[in-house]
Amino acid sequence: MITKITHTCVYVLNQDSAYDFYVNKLGFTVHTDAPMGPGARWLTVCPPEQPELEITLFLVAEGGMFPKETVQAMTDLIRKGTFGAAVFTCTDLMATYEELTRKGVVFKKPPTKEFYGFEALFVDDSGNWFSLTQTAAE
Amino acid sequence: MAPEPYQKIYLYKRIVQAKLFIDRHYAEKIDLHNIADEANFSRFHFIRLFKTIYGKTPHHYLTQVRIDNAKRLLAAGSGTADVCFQVGFESVTSFAALFKKLVGTTPSAFQHGQAERKKAVAASPLQFIPNCFAETQGWTKNSNFGEAAF
To answer: Is A7-135 CATH 1.10.3380.30?
Structure first.
């Protein structure tokens, strides 16, 4: 019986920049930050109220699972905003939108009422997009 | 975010401004009444709106920010007394008591736990990385990490 997700993966183009985005702008906490040899680093962060879910900020770089042509293809796709990586929720969407905008986070869509509830879309420093919601029930 | 406050964008901007002020100035002596005054709210209205948006009063939010930053500084190795004053508390005793109440452990025990974990990550990082990632990255072949035998 599967019980829960412990890790999920967001492919990023620069881990220093991703650290700044996810920690200093979004307010996530660092779970593990371990150097893994030259140019390699295992970096995971957690949403503030979900310390058991590690979001791996996985660097798209040549070597390991990524051959050169895959790196190029992945980089192009991430940069042009192909990948929607997750849906986050927050206590108050309008306030969170206002705060993140002030911190320089780019939104593709401002808070909008949808069938599901209120939703906004923002983009990380690499180009991955995320949905930010406040469900109608909240 | 009910439709009514959604239309009152300026209220959000002022409350968010106050929240960001706390985020930036938590280490200073903050008078939350002054924040309400500067935001042109009555104190009661300010506290009510802040709690509606963030789920806690400005005072509780300030305490949480201070404790979160205390955890960060303790994890980085600063001493309890230094941390207490660096995050804006004025009494080490009350800081330690509040920390234990909110975090569930004393500042020194928290620091010890963080130091132990940091040591473990440095000595055996592969214990903290799912093998599917470590193996595809070729990290399991690197004997320098000194991973513990299973």
So the answer is: no
Across the interface, whether the CB atoms of B15 and A95 are under 8 A apart is answered yes
- Global pTM reads 0.89
- Quickly tell me which residue has 């330690």 as its tokens: B96
CA dihedral A7, A11, A13, A15 (to 10 degrees): 0
Quote the CA–CA distance of A56 and A7 in Å, as a whole number.
Answer: 7
The full set of domains in chain B, from first to last, is: 3-105 (1.10.10.60)
Contact A25, A132 (CB under 8 A): no
Residue closest to A138 by CA, chosen among A86, A105, A80, A95: A95
Whole-complex ipTM: 0.84
Contacting A residues, span 71-100, partner chain B, CB-CB under 8 Å: 91-95, 98-99
DSSP A10: E
Residue with tokens 């990632």: B133
